[in-house]
Write a structure and sequence with these properties.
By secondary structure, this protein is an alpha+beta fold. Helix content is 36%, strand content 20%. It starts with 11 loop residues before the first helix and ends in a 29-residue tail after the last helix.
């Protein structure tokens, strides 16, 4: 729907913009790398010479109606078949046509140039003014592939299930989007009729249905999600609940019952379940089919993970639990809010930051530092890991406010112990520890965050104090589970990509035809990547923008955007460019 000629219904542009905003709020809160895009495809139920057969509401023009021209042939084919069969069942006709349209849309999207880098998901259609309208959501394929998925998409009973929590999130979003399209006016259009948290919670419930099905209980109530939330919230004699619960059939070959209850506990009998959890440890696990608790068990033998018949719910601390399959965390829940499981610190960012901050550091050291850091993140009371090129000198300087120790190479086995007291652990890039319990110093800074605790702000002050004295990185593990890498460097980019967009802007300034969408797309790129632009590049882009705007000030094509002048960032340096 690039122009009025392709307008299918009055509010389609408003709907598409609202869908994009809702997708960004939902998916970016889980993983901003997913980079969601949303557009609409409308295909007519019957050919009409006076109206376009296909409409595409895709502001960036990555897809156009011509891409989906094959839908018309499908429509004619089904219409002829219905006429030959003398069938007047419109509902049946729509169902058949929808199945054909959906399959063809997915085929076209996979074959499109964007299909190599993005994964597309298509909603159920909504009938609007004689058109079947589909919401299509695109997510970054590379990022999606970093998550763990089950292989089966149906349960033992044949019920359709989600293979991962992210699939459940996508399903919930598409369902909400399709429902929103049914609104009769823009004022009624609201994709997030439920809050973002409610949608994520609903996705958590949906995925836990997959887990519940593994138990094969004939009368499964699908209450596992709410039950785990409640059980994790309860304390027993003032103590938090720790332990694991196996979700599997009672007769599962990889389960050996070590203590069987004479009368199983219903999982909704929360206080009894919480009390029984006190008996569980890393060897003895609670056995449940998602409805009944049968007793304690141990795992035995080699599990055939292809069967996807055994899951483990791990209660990690108060109000926190997670679900694993074959050693892979599939969803983690904190304070009733499910989340995608990511490494607590992004490995790629960790390696990139340390290579840029510690000149000449090799892969062996990076891997060792990564292992130590991952172990330190398990410290439930929080800690700071201070990595410094002058760790020995700093240990001597701060000797009055730390426990200075004889230098010792640390490993994963000892880091948990030495990080259990207040203060930072001071190490060098060889993982040699020089001091523990370090009280970091520094001067007041405007870069602190009053919403964060003393640990985080002291790390910021210390880094700014040491920034020009030694190569320094601090890993801050807060008690509330937030983990920060200081300094928080922006990712590296290809300088050639910036040059490519500047050259495109030069060509656009030289053409007589005004391509507003291309202009807006280029300016959007520069606004998003303004950090990486030099003074000269900012000046060039600003000059070209003014030329294009002045030449086309009287144009009525498209929506006119107001773009700010670009200015260089003082923190930018050539290290932010990838080697090409």
């Amino acid at each position: 729907m690039k122009s009025c000629a392709n307008l299918i219904w009055e509010h389609q542009q408003h709907c598409q913009i609202s869908l994009v905003l809702a997708a960004e709020e939902l998916f970016n809160s889980l993983d901003e790398r997913l980079a969601p895009k949303v557009f609409l495809i409308a295909a007519s139920l019957k050919p009409n010479m006076n109206r376009p057969f296909v409409g595409v509401e895709c502001p960036e023009a990555e897809y156009v109606p011509q891409d989906f021209r094959s839908l018309k042939a499908l429509c004619i084919q089904h219409s002829l078949q219905m006429n030959q069969q003398e069938c007047n069942d419109e509902e049946h006709y729509q169902q058949l046509l929808n199945a054909a349209y959906t399959s063809e849309i997915q085929r076209v999207l996979r074959a499109h140039i964007n299909g190599s880098s993005n994964e597309n998901f298509v909603s159920s259609p909504v009938l609007i003014d004689g058109y079947l309208v589909y919401v299509v959501t695109e997510l970054n394929k590379k990022i999606l592939n970093t998550y763990y998925y089950l292989s089966k998409d149906s349960s033992f009973s044949g019920q359709k299930i989600s293979r991962s929590f992210i699939e459940s999130v996508i399903k919930v979003y598409l369902d909400a989007s399709a429902n929103a399209l049914k609104a009769k006016s823009p004022s009624d259009f609201n994709v997030l009729a439920k809050t973002r948290d409610e949608l994520v919670s609903k996705a958590g419930q949906d995925f836990m249905t997959t887990v519940s099905m593994a138990g094969q209980h004939p009368n499964s109530l699908h209450v596992l999600y709410d039950a785990c939330n409640t059980i994790s919230s309860l304390k027993y004699e003032g103590a938090e609940g720790f332990g694991k619960m196996v979700i599997a059939p009672k007769t599962h070959p990889n389960v050996r019952i070590t203590m069987e209850l004479e009368k199983p506990i219903h999982i909704k009998d929360f206080r009894k379940v919480r009390k029984f959890l006190e008996l569980a440890d890393h060897k003895q696990l609670i056995l449940s089919d998602s409805v009944l608790i049968y007793g304690l068990c141990q795992l035995r033998g080699k599990y055939n993970y292809h069967e996807e018949s055994l899951f483990i719910v791990n209660f990690t601390k108060h109000f926190h639990w997670e679900v694993t399959h074959h050693g892979h965390v599939m969803v983690s829940v904190a304070f009733r809010m499910p989340d995608l499981y990511n490494e607590k610190i992004n490995r790629e960012k960790f390696f990139s930051s340390l290579k840029r901050l510690f000149t000449g550091i090799d892969k062996v050291r990076l891997n060792t530092l990564w292992d130590i850091t991952m172990e330190a993140t398990k410290q439930k009371h929080g800690t700071i890991l201070a990595i410094s090129s002058k760790a020995a000198e700093e240990a001597a300087r701060l000797s009055s406010q730390c426990f200075k120790i004889r230098p010792i190479r640390i490993n994963k086995d000892i880091i948990h112990q030495i990080s259990s007291i207040d203060g930072a652990v001071l190490i060098d890039i060889d993982c040699t520890c020089h001091a523990i319990g370090v009280i970091l110093d520094g001067i007041a800074t405007s870069n602190g965050d009053s919403s964060r605790g003393a640990r985080y702000n002291s790390a910021v002050r210390y880094y700014e104090y040491m920034e020009h004295k030694a190569q320094t990185v601090l890993v801050v593990i807060s008690e509330d589970g937030i983990i920060d890498l200081i300094p928080n460097l922006k990712p590296q980019v290809k300088h050639s990509a910036i040059n490519k967009h500047i050259n495109a802007l030069v060509k656009l300034s030289e053409t007589d035809k005004f391509l507003r969408k291309s202009f807006n797309r280029l300016m959007d790129f520069f606004q998003e990547n303004d950090f990486y632009l030099s003074q000269k590049e900012c000046t060039t882009v600003n000059r070209l923008r003014r030329i294009i705007e002045l030449k086309n000030k009287d144009s009525n094509e498209g929506i006119r955007m107001i773009w700010d002048n670009l200015s260089p960032n003082k923190e930018m340096n050539p290290a932010y460019y990838l080697k090409e």
